[in-house]
Specification:
The chain has 55 residues and is an alpha+beta fold. It has 1 helix and 2 strands; from the N terminus they run ββα. Helices cover 33% and strands 29% of the residues. It has a two-stranded antiparallel sheet with strand order 1-2.
Length: 55
């Protein structure tokens, strides 16, 4: 998953060998990454799907 903001990067990946999900949120100059309601819902769905894959 990558945000639509050109100044921010949001990635989500599954590492089954370590049994973890990695979420990385980076914005310019250390600013927080802001999500719209739709982007937050998409992230939530992806987290649920990947969590199910870890089980």
């Amino acid at each position: 998953m990558t945000s639509n903001d050109h100044e921010a990067d949001l990635t989500l990946e599954l590492d089954p060998s370590a049994g973890v999900l990695r979420l990385k949120a980076v914005a310019t100059f250390g600013d927080p990454v802001e999500l719209t309601a739709d982007a937050a819902r998409e992230l939530a769905q992806q987290l649920l799907q990947l969590a199910d894959e870890l089980e």
